[in-house]
Structure formats: structure tokens, C-alpha cells
């Protein structure tokens, strides 16, 4: 958990990069929170944000994987990361992160809601109730709690930006995708409602559908697929950077990045 009173060099004020030079890049000095940052798209986005000068709060359940990410960022000369190893379905942790950010920075410039759970694929009527609830918790409720906790901080930014990762199955019903599709449909409606409520503010919010991407979740959903035919998560990082910039005008949009899954 972030401790705003006892910051290490990995959680210092956004003034210098890992080598002591002033931050440079398209996101220089911007404070960005990325969930699901230990692997896949979240990991690629966190690395790219750091390379672009952002002060990244990287959130995931596994501390070891976050530390490996931070080592990579430092080796590449990027901004050291603020590491938060928590299961966000312990919803009070989200509120605690928001309080810590408010005390330390008094704002949040970028929120990336990326963490997701596939669950088991199969007929809707055969879904295990505990699995169904867990998928909804991770893919939908966590993102609502993030909006609830981080909205005041985004409004304190001169140009708050939020983006949430969805899937084509969230707006194109597909047999046997059950809990995952239902959770993404709910996410898309929630983000659309949130965007409508932000029209007269300095905050802009969008949805991103990465499409077919070489991730662990994709491998779980399509075990027989050749991963070499899929783009790497890093291929999508520039789209996230664009939506995170202070001058990006997009709002309430669904950004489709690759060939639909």
C-alpha cells in the first residue's frame, strides 16, 4: 500500500527520472494509476507511460511481478514506479489508495482501468455462481469503485483522463462468453454514463478495445491459437498514451485498436 508519509526513491515527487534528469515526454510530470500492471497490456502501458515521463502508480496483486516491472523501467531510464500490491476486490484498498494520492499529490491526471478476469467460458445457464460473481467483481465493480474513489482527484487535474479496457464481446453478444461478456457490457454502459456526467468538466473518459492481443487471457480463451499471429501488448501502448495526454479531445468514445477477437 502507498504510504504518502514515507516515500522511497521509487515513490518520490514527480520531479526527476531514475537517472536524476527532469522528466521528458508526452506525459511528463503527469500522475497515472494503472491497474493490472504486472502483465499483458497493463504492464506495457505502465512501462510506456514511465518512458513518456509519467509518474506511474502500478497496481496489481503480485508484488514480485511489480518489482520486476520497476526494475525494467529503471533499466530503460524511465521514471521509477510507485508499486501497490493489492487485490482491488478488497474495495477499501481502493479508497485507501485514493486518500494516499490526495495527501501526496492532491490530484490524479490519468486513470487506466485495465485489470480483468476471464472466468470460465460456457453456457450462461451452467455458470458457477461464485465464478460469475468474481468476474463481475473484478471487471465491473472494481472499476466502479475506482471511479467513485478517483473522480474527485481527476477533477483536481487540469486535464483529467480516464480509460477503461473492454472487449468486442461487451457490445457484440457471443455464445459461451457468459460472465466476461456480461461484465464488459456493464462496464461499457457504466463508462458511457460517467462520460455523459463529465461533459462540463475538465475530465475526459473513454473505452479501449485492444482486440486480438498476445496476452495470457487470450491464450486461456483460445488455447489452440498461434500466438505469433497476434500483436504484442506493446503495439497498443501509443493509443493509451494519446488518450492520456492533456490535449487529447476524445471523450465518450470506444476506441478499437486491433482486429476484433
Automatic annotation (TrEMBL):
GO terms for molecular function: oxidoreductase activity. Residues 1-26 are annotated as: Disordered. Keywords: Oxidoreductase. Residues 1-10 have a biased composition (Polar residues). Belongs to the short-chain dehydrogenases/reductases (SDR) family. This is NAD(P)-dependent dehydrogenase (Short-subunit alcohol dehydrogenase family).
Amino acid at each position: 500500500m502507498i504510504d504518502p508519509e514515507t516515500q522511497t526513491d521509487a515513490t518520490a515527487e514527480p520531479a526527476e527520472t531514475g537517472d536524476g534528469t527532469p522528466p521528458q515526454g508526452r506525459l511528463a510530470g503527469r500522475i497515472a494509476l494503472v491497474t493490472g500492471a504486472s502483465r499483458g497490456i497493463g504492464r506495457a502501458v505502465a512501462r510506456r507511460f514511465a518512458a513518456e515521463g509519467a509518474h506511474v502508480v502500478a497496481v496489481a496483486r503480485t508484488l514480485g511481478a511489480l518489482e520486476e516491472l520497476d526494475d525494467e523501467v529503471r533499466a530503460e531510464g524511465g521514471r521509477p514506479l510507485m508499486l501497490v500490491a493489492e487485490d482491488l476486490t478488497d474495495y477499501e484498498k481502493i479508497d485507501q489508495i485514493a486518500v494516499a494520492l490526495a495527501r501526496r499529490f492532491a490530484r490524479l491526471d490519468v486513470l487506466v482501468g485495465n485489470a480483468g478476469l476471464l472466468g470460465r467460458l460456457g453456457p450462461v445457464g451452467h455458470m458457477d455462481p461464485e465464478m460469475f460473481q468474481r468476474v463481475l467483481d473484478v471487471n465491473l465493480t472494481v472499476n466502479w469503485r475506482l471511479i467513485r474513489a478517483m473522480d474527485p482527484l481527476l477533477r483536481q487535474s487540469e486535464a483529467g483522463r480516464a480509460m477503461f479496457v473492454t472487449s468486442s464481446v461487451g457490445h457484440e453478444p457471443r455464445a459461451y462468453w457468459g460472465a466476461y461478456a456480461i461484465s464488459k457490457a456493464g462496464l461499457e454502459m457504466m463508462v458511457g454514463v460517467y462520460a455523459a456526467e463529465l461533459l462540463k468538466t475538465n475530465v475526459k473518459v473513454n473505452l479501449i478495445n485492444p482486440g486480438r492481443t498476445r496476452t495470457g487471457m487470450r491464450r486461456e480463451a483460445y488455447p489452440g491459437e498461434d500466438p505469433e499471429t497476434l500483436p504484442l501488448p506493446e503495439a497498443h501502448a501509443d493509443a493509451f498514451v494519446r488518450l492520456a495526454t492533456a490535449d487529447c479531445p476524445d471523450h465518450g468514445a470506444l476506441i478499437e485498436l486491433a482486429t476484433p477477437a
